[in-house]
């Protein structure tokens, strides 16, 4: 089932970024408390924990994509027990597996859980976008609009307006859908996405 469209490159980029820089990023976020007593111990401990989490993520991800029930169970356990960016990343992967199986309710649950663990605005935007697509596929246009409303970065606005237009169209708001598709065309986005937005805008304008 094709619910997601063209965010796979962004997902891969985020995964590569955190695989290469995750420890440094998290450590950098807490440098402001470096004067606190015991900082060196805390820094060492958190770095070790995150490195361990990264290794577990790689192992669980491999199990998940083996297609076995045990792999899904292991990924769900990791997502529930981990409270860092790797939990959010495995949540995205669990949602994709659920979408591929046609289990949109499970995909929605996985994404909602992942959103709670997102550590960067860009990752939260990505999760909200995917969550909105799933909610729209479930026929819940209002929930999809709420998720889209949480997307902040300009770089996601074309994709966000694409989904927003679809949600408004699902609600019968043709004028609103037109405005959303038009706004999407005026935002940053790939040529492929803009071609899709143009097609949708033409369809609702006829």
TrEMBL record:
Localization per Swiss-Prot or TrEMBL: Cell membrane
One GO location term (cellular component): plasma membrane
Record InterPro entries: SecYEG/CpoB_TPR, TPR-like_helical_dom_sf, YfgM
Transmembrane segments: 23-42
One function term, GO molecular function aspect: protein-containing complex binding
Protein's membrane topology: Single-pass type II membrane protein
Keywords from the UniProt entry: Cell membrane, Chaperone, Membrane, Transmembrane, Transmembrane helix
A Pfam cross-reference name: TPR_21
Domain Ancillary SecYEG translocon subunit/Cell division coordinator CpoB TPR residue range list: 15-205
Family label: Belongs to the YfgM family.
Protein name, UniProt field: Ancillary SecYEG translocon subunit
């Amino acid at each position: 089932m094709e619910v997601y469209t063209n965010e796979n490159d962004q997902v891969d980029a985020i995964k590569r970024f955190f695989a290469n820089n995750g420890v440094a990023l998290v450590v950098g976020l807490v440098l402001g408390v470096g004067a606190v007593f015991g900082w060196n111990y805390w820094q060492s401990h958190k770095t070790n924990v995150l490195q361990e989490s990264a290794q577990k993520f790689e192992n669980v991800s491999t199990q998940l994509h083996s297609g076995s029930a045990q792999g899904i169970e292991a990924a769900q356990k990791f997502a529930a027990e981990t409270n860092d960016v790797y939990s959010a990343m495995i949540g995205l992967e669990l949602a994709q597996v659920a979408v591929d199986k046609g289990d949109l309710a499970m995909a929605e649950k996985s994404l909602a859980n992942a959103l709670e663990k997102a550590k960067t605005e860009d990752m939260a935007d990505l999760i909200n976008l995917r969550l909105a697509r799933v909610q729209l596929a479930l026929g819940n246009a209002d929930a999809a609009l709420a998720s889209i409303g949480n997307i902040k970065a300009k770089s996601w606005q074309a994709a966000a307006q694409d989904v927003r237009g679809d949600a408004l169209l699902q609600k019968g708001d043709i004028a609103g859908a037109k405005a959303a598709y038009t706004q999407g065309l005026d935002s940053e986005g790939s040529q492929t996405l803009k071609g899709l937005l143009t097609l949708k805008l033409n369809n609702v304008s006829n």
